[in-house]
Amino acid sequence: MPVGRLDHYSIRTLDIEASRRFYTEVMGFETGFRPPFNFPGLWLYNGAPYPESTGVVHIIGIDPDDPQGLKDYLGDRDVASLQGTGTVDHMAFTATGLAGMRSRLQQHDVPFRERTVPSLGLHQVFCEDPSGVTIELNYPAAEAATA
């Protein structure tokens, strides 16, 4: 069987609420179904919730008072390693509605940077989530000219 599309990415965090706010209020995702794992977390959906779609971002909460459920399921990680994307540079999404995203980023005091890719008709917006994961949003370049 060939590899298909990217299903989701997961972020381990000590601050589930900060991640929830970023991914729902800034990115526009919705919280939805998550299996009853033995550790805290959220599954965030882009569009229809489960079972019509799969979660695009899984937030994995670390409970410092009871880390065993997470250790048993996904293995242990040093808390000091939980910042940024490590060797993965960024996660990218196609998007529309550039003016609205700029407004939400500014409203939530999320720093961002933009650039237009020559010859591709693509305008990119880069920001970071509360865990330091870089998010790339790819808009039609025509939106940048009118936004």
Explain what you see.
This protein has 147 residues and is α/β, with parallel strands linked by helices. It has two domains: 9-81, no CATH class; 91-146, Roll (2,3-Dihydroxybiphenyl 1,2-Dioxygenase, domain 1). The protein is 23% helix and 29% strand. The protein is built from four helices and eight strands. The protein has helices at 16-26, 68-74, 98-107, 141-146, and strands at residues 9-13, 30-32, 41-45, 57-61, 91-94, 112-117, 122-128, 134-140. A four-stranded mixed beta sheet has the order 1-4-3-2, with helices on one face. A four-stranded mixed beta sheet has the order 5-8-7-6. A hairpin with an 8-residue loop joins β2 and β3. The chain is globular, with a radius of gyration of 17 Å. The model has no long low-confidence stretch (mean pLDDT 89).
Broad shape: globular
In what range is the share of β-strand residues? 25-35%
- The rounded distance between the terminal residues' Cα atoms is 42 Å
Strands of the biggest beta sheet: in what spatial order? Answer: 1-4-3-2
Radius of gyration over C-alpha positions, nearest whole angstrom: 17 Å
Order of helices and strands: EHEEEHEHEEEH
Low-confidence stretches: none
Number of domains: 2
Helix content: 10-25%
The major beta sheet can be summarized as:
4 strands, mixed
- On the 0 to 100 scale, the average pLDDT is 89
Q: Count every beta strand, where a strand is a DSSP E run of 2 or more residues.
A: 8
H/I helix tally: 4
